[in-house]
Design goal:
The complex is a heterodimer of chains A (204) and B (235).
Chain A lengths: L4 E6 L3 H14 L4 E6 L5 H7 L4 E4 L9 H7 L6 E6 L5 H5 L3 E4 L4 H18 L7 H11 L4 H8 L3 H15 L4 H10 L18
Chain B lengths: L14 H7 L4 H6 L11 H8 L3 H12 L14 H30 L5 H37 L16 H18 L5 H44 L1
The chains are: A alpha/beta (204), B mainly alpha (235).
């Protein structure tokens, strides 16, 4: 399910926003998860909901926020930013973007830009297998260890443990301990009986 | 050949037409306690006969059918009392009927050779149900009485609807996660039983999302408005 490209559109005008969404829908070339917001303040919560690959943004909504700052907020340095241009803009401004889509572009042009610049590289570098370290951490989590305990056991900083956990959640799309337990049993990360304190089903 | 259908359902539309065209609205009917068998009657007539506030009914139907709709743009009008009754019935539906039903089916679909795994799967589900219980109970014990007090014109100093923050997302995502886990990892014994559970979960996920949309888009804004009105009177 994770092969889709995650796109966020930031554009205050409903006409332009709906238009952009409608074009993306027509392209019908690749699976995309598209969400749209009207201003920059909503960006952080949009990033929180999904790992974003592509940001299509009206340059005039940026205000004092910079693109590097946005990439940092998205926790994704590979985030591609596309300017949605509908008025005359300074060339130096547009140059900071990875691509520019103008409101006068045809559907073919938009399609070509998206494919060439963004979608191919994004898909090429997707991988979802866990590293050995991540597997170790899962085992610790389902044993009920805290981040601090895990850090001590594996000689890591708590910060590193947290960042591993974030990666695990992103790769597996599993955010709860109960879910990781199921994952670990199915993938035989734990021996039978190793999770001694696994609570039984409620009411059994 | 694109065909668009715009516009909302109105009081004068036939109730049976609404249900045949948009079958998810069947759920709304049962939550308002409207039984089937109304023949050719219009939406308005059926509502009047069963003592349901027509505006509230239509507002919920139309919001349900167009999730992107902004309630304000739609000019929603409804009664808060009716809405609370609806939400209350909706909670009962999930807690007493929908989720237990899914659990029963899930137990039947489990592979008997996977004892350890089954325990973990049921544990996940039960933990989830518990979370839904807590959330809905909170609304019934704290939010609904607070709204009734507001409707009587009483404003409590130490509470406002902003405190009832949006914990909805968690409830939806946890069920989605469960679905993913079953699909990706569960070695089911045969596909029919597990498919049936999955269909139920997909549907339930949607139901929960629209239930939550009604709370976020209709209920909470209406209460905020009420709070402002009452707050204004005090000053």
């Amino acid at each position: 399910m994770n092969n889709s490209v995650k796109i966020v559109i930031v554009e205050p005008s409903i006409l332009l926003r709906s238009g952009m969404i409608s074009i993306l829908q027509q392209l019908n070339m690749i699976q995309m998860d598209v969400s749209d917001i009207t201003d920059i303040d909503q960006l952080k919560s949009a990033f929180g909901r999904q790992n974003t690959d592509i940001l299509i943004i009206n340059p005039s909504v940026l205000g004092t926020v910079s693109l590097p700052q946005i990439k940092k907020d998205a926790n994704n340095s590979a985030l591609k930013c596309i300017a949605l241009q509908h008025s005359l803009l300074d060339h130096t401004v547009l140059k900071t973007y990875d691509e520019v889509i103008s409101i006068y572009d045809s559907a073919e042009q938009i399609c070509e830009k998206l494919t060439r610049m963004i979608i191919k590289p994004v898909l090429d570098k997707r991988h979802e297998t866990l590293t050995l370290r991540e597997k170790e951490i899962i085992i610790c989590i389902i044993k009920g260890m805290t981040n601090k305990q895990i850090a001590e056991k594996l000689y890591l900083s708590t910060h590193t443990v947290i960042s591993h956990r974030r990666n695990i959640a992103a790769k597996l799309q599993i955010h709860s301990t109960a879910g990781l337990t199921i994952y670990a049993i199915v993938n035989k990360l734990v021996e039978l009986g190793e999770i001694g304190d696994l609570p039984g089903a409620i009411g059994e | 050949m694109t065909k668009f259908r715009f516009g909302k359902y109105r009081e004068s539309d036939s109730m049976s037409r609404l249900l045949c065209e948009k079958y998810p609205t069947l759920l709304v009917l049962s939550r308002f306690g409207i039984a089937l068998g109304f023949g050719e009657k219009s939406i308005g007539e059926v509502c009047k006969d069963t003592g349901v506030d027509t505006d509230t009914f239509l507002t919920i139907i139309n919001l349900l059918l167009d999730e992107n709709q902004d309630a304000k743009i739609a000019g929603a009008s409804f009664s808060l009392e009716s809405l609370i009754t609806y939400l209350q019935n909706s909670h009962n539906y999930f807690l007493d009927y929908r989720l237990p039903g899914i659990r029963t089916k899930l137990v039947d679909a489990l592979n008997p050779t996977q004892k350890e795994l089954n325990r973990a799967v049921l544990h996940y589900f039960d933990e989830y149900v518990l979370q839904v219980h807590k959330h809905m109970q909170y609304e019934e014990k704290n939010v609904f009485p607070y709204v009734y007090a507001l409707l009587r014109g009483e404003k409590r100093e130490n509470y406002n609807i902003g405190i009832f923050s949006k914990k909805h997302d968690q409830i939806e995502t946890k069920l989605t996660e469960f679905k993913h886990i079953l699909i990706k990892y569960y070695p089911a014994k045969s596909s029919n039983e597990i498919n049936s559970v999955l269909f139920d979960i997909f549907n339930c996920e949607k139901d929960l999302a629209s239930h939550n949309a009604i709370e976020d888009k209709l209920f909470v804004p209406a209460i905020m408005e009420l709070e402002n009105k009452i707050g204004g009177n005090h000053e």
